């Protein structure tokens, strides 16, 4: 039997607000336990939530970016359940009337095709705290720093038909929220988490099979692995005559397996109802207008523009627009005088490699886009060769100044004066009679040897094209 | 000295006739000798009080005193008070010392009041007799074998017994007006959103509202002035302009239109109470008011609607009391479930548990539409009744309660009969309207309350209407024997 895979994803994107969604406490990551939990986060008797408008703006940016329906009114609801890291005994979330309604996202697949994935809704909610089970001698510790951190839960339609599509969609959502500046996208710190719903059905069947939900996935690699494992497991169960049980399964990255957390029968009745402590959020047209006006260029539009404006290939343009900081860096380099093709190459390869090696990211690159542009300008006007440029780049990286300063200080200016080059060429020809003879006898490969000798003698500063020309003229004379 | 009102005491303080410290000592002494038999206070705070009194005296001598500076009051134990036990009448919070002040407390403190202590109340404000308190029932100062009403029973009884000049209360379904009526004092439940709920331990968030409990409308205006106003920490607090509540107290009632809802005068109303209300209506006629009969046709739906909405909200609001972070925790929990079950089972009293269960049921999958959603729709109908009424009249008038205070233990085993005691007060909460109870002629020595309901944010009108009655009658000046 041939099985068709059906996948829908729920993404939890932590919104990049300074303070929590319903309190003034900081959302910064990594503080000592319970130092970023105020009276509201600790759910002391009598405290009340106050909505952080910035979280609403973040959600609206996402809504506008995916062309979603956005209602005039949005309502917060309480999701009631008991857990020690949920201080109020309910999570403030949204149920009916989420802030973002139906939208869609176009995902580019490896095959070069693209596919439209439906977005069912996206709603605002608060995160819970953390339960720590180690180091407490049989007890559990509770850290409420994360409690109340704003999340945008983005729910897709079950539109994905392969694991590759699911991963591509997750990556695209990740790219989008980072582009919009509404999420830092840091998956290790849990800023972007994915839950996946997967089911299988025989090809041609219309009805969906019973799905399982996979939780706790915090990298794209794990998403792929978890889905692979779960797909195999479901096929094995069904082909072995069994039945899929609707349940929540936890992905264990260490064991690379999924295991049952709770079945539908044990599922909580969350008793959702509108939170009487919070008024409905009214979204007026002027706010949406403002958000549309301030919308940054989105990845797909930027990709197209890069291909057209900078005459880049799709692969190069794709690499450069993968993240907004990288694209911005590239454009700054071009503005500072870098030729587009050379700039694309230098930004992705030379700078990218160096940053990677040093474990740095673009934001703390020791080489500014202006410095990079200045360097590339000197390649374009032939002041230095590409090879020397790498040396100059290293010096800039080490803080020795901009390209012109380095070139001057180290005397790296290319020798383009044939008059200055001629005595050197003559000397090398005179010193290597054997090779000259062989060359003249037809072993033209030896040109490389002569070029190498000249470069060595000029410490790389000679313009290679001119050296070639001059050598050929003299050797063939 | 203890028979004086806020207005009178304030004048005496500012004229230097006595100091706030003297006044405070006087009340602390009264509490010492009289409260044992009444049980109005859960916590008495002499140190806090004397410190505040000294500060108040300094403000007075510096000429920086407001109308409440140096006035001894009590805070209902539902308001969080920094550094002072805030129990909400429950074993669950018997060990809870609040780390912060409620907005109401903060504002009254800024006005210079002297807090004598925390008033007894029904557990988590759930009750109409003060019998559900973990700290035992409060006795009615007019007859110690009778209840003072609830849930602000301690506040009402201590104001009636002159164990403070005034107190704060909260009203979710009548919890200020009903005990005010049964204890013969003046109580005002403001418009929903007028007084911040921040730091007021939530029972039913969409209904709860704090307000003053005093011995006169004039005093209620002074207290409300300090308590009310927009609070950015409470999203449901209203950004309405705050009028001077005392300015219009003496406005003429000539031409005022008073509506009597016929549903409030039917067979459930005690004949004696009805006669007292009639006598007050007669006074209003004499003051030039026009009295007309009106109808609030959905009145009979108020109690059942309330007993869906309020328990539903409370079932969620009280989930935070789980034994994890503060408050009562059972001994030696075996595991998490045991911790939850026993901490909540042992920490909460019977009435609270009953309401949590009713509310949990009403919100459950499959029942939500039939109960909670329907109740919310009926709420709109009840609001519409009042909207129509206020197109015809300026204030709605009726009894606060169907009877005078009932006996201790009389209704304790019959929750439904108990719930019906709030039949006239609940609608104002469901509609979010301001309501007031003022004392009228007692029946067989027991106080009777007259209820006034006003339009949204029209507290000033209610205070004016109540004050004018108190100018021509002395019912509000009656004191229980021995107090």
UniProtKB/TrEMBL annotation, chain A:
<keyword id="KW-0436">Ligase</keyword>
<dbReference type="InterPro" id="IPR003789">
    <property type="entry name" value="Asn/Gln_tRNA_amidoTrase-B-like"/>
</dbReference>
<dbReference type="InterPro" id="IPR014746">
    <property type="entry name" value="Gln_synth/guanido_kin_cat_dom"/>
</dbReference>
<dbReference type="InterPro" id="IPR017958">
    <property type="entry name" value="Gln-tRNA_amidoTrfase_suB_CS"/>
</dbReference>
<dbReference type="GO" id="GO:0005524">
    <property type="term" value="F:ATP binding"/>
</dbReference>
<comment type="similarity">
    <text>Belongs to the GatB/GatE family. GatB subfamily.</text>
</comment>
<dbReference type="InterPro" id="IPR018027">
    <property type="entry name" value="Asn/Gln_amidotransferase"/>
</dbReference>
<dbReference type="GO" id="GO:0050566">
    <property type="term" value="F:asparaginyl-tRNA synthase (glutamine-hydrolyzing) activity"/>
</dbReference>
<dbReference type="InterPro" id="IPR017959">
    <property type="entry name" value="Asn/Gln-tRNA_amidoTrfase_suB/E"/>
</dbReference>
<comment type="function">
    <text>Allows the formation of correctly charged Asn-tRNA(Asn) or Gln-tRNA(Gln) through the transamidation of misacylated Asp-tRNA(Asn) or Glu-tRNA(Gln) in organisms which lack either or both of asparaginyl-tRNA or glutaminyl-tRNA synthetases. The reaction takes place in the presence of glutamine and ATP through an activated phospho-Asp-tRNA(Asn) or phospho-Glu-tRNA(Gln).</text>
</comment>
<dbReference type="InterPro" id="IPR023168">
    <property type="entry name" value="GatB_Yqey_C_2"/>
</dbReference>
<keyword id="KW-0648">Protein biosynthesis</keyword>
<keyword id="KW-0067">ATP-binding</keyword>
<comment type="subunit">
    <text>Heterotrimer of A, B and C subunits.</text>
</comment>
<dbReference type="GO" id="GO:0070681">
    <property type="term" value="P:glutaminyl-tRNAGln biosynthesis via transamidation"/>
</dbReference>
<dbReference type="GO" id="GO:0006412">
    <property type="term" value="P:translation"/>
</dbReference>
<dbReference type="InterPro" id="IPR042114">
    <property type="entry name" value="GatB_C_1"/>
</dbReference>
<dbReference type="Pfam" id="PF02934">
    <property type="entry name" value="GatB_N"/>
</dbReference>
<dbReference type="InterPro" id="IPR004413">
    <property type="entry name" value="GatB"/>
</dbReference>
<keyword id="KW-0547">Nucleotide-binding</keyword>
<feature type="domain" description="Asn/Gln amidotransferase">
    <location>
        <begin position="328"/>
        <end position="475"/>
    </location>
</feature>
<dbReference type="GO" id="GO:0016740">
    <property type="term" value="F:transferase activity"/>
</dbReference>
Automatic annotation (TrEMBL), chain B:
<keyword id="KW-0547">Nucleotide-binding</keyword>
<feature type="active site" description="Charge relay system">
    <location>
        <position position="76"/>
    </location>
</feature>
<dbReference type="GO" id="GO:0006412">
    <property type="term" value="P:translation"/>
</dbReference>
<feature type="active site" description="Charge relay system">
    <location>
        <position position="151"/>
    </location>
</feature>
<comment type="similarity">
    <text>Belongs to the amidase family. GatA subfamily.</text>
</comment>
<dbReference type="InterPro" id="IPR023631">
    <property type="entry name" value="Amidase_dom"/>
</dbReference>
<feature type="domain" description="Amidase">
    <location>
        <begin position="22"/>
        <end position="463"/>
    </location>
</feature>
<dbReference type="GO" id="GO:0016740">
    <property type="term" value="F:transferase activity"/>
</dbReference>
<dbReference type="GO" id="GO:0005524">
    <property type="term" value="F:ATP binding"/>
</dbReference>
<dbReference type="InterPro" id="IPR000120">
    <property type="entry name" value="Amidase"/>
</dbReference>
<feature type="active site" description="Acyl-ester intermediate">
    <location>
        <position position="175"/>
    </location>
</feature>
<comment type="subunit">
    <text>Heterotrimer of A, B and C subunits.</text>
</comment>
<dbReference type="InterPro" id="IPR020556">
    <property type="entry name" value="Amidase_CS"/>
</dbReference>
<keyword id="KW-0648">Protein biosynthesis</keyword>
<comment type="function">
    <text>Allows the formation of correctly charged Gln-tRNA(Gln) through the transamidation of misacylated Glu-tRNA(Gln) in organisms which lack glutaminyl-tRNA synthetase. The reaction takes place in the presence of glutamine and ATP through an activated gamma-phospho-Glu-tRNA(Gln).</text>
</comment>
<dbReference type="GO" id="GO:0030956">
    <property type="term" value="C:glutamyl-tRNA(Gln) amidotransferase complex"/>
</dbReference>
<protein>
    <recommendedName>
        <fullName>Glutamyl-tRNA(Gln) amidotransferase subunit A</fullName>
        <ecNumber>6.3.5.7</ecNumber>
    </recommendedName>
</protein>
<keyword id="KW-0436">Ligase</keyword>
<dbReference type="InterPro" id="IPR004412">
    <property type="entry name" value="GatA"/>
</dbReference>
<dbReference type="Pfam" id="PF01425">
    <property type="entry name" value="Amidase"/>
</dbReference>
<dbReference type="GO" id="GO:0050567">
    <property type="term" value="F:glutaminyl-tRNA synthase (glutamine-hydrolyzing) activity"/>
</dbReference>
<dbReference type="InterPro" id="IPR036928">
    <property type="entry name" value="AS_sf"/>
</dbReference>
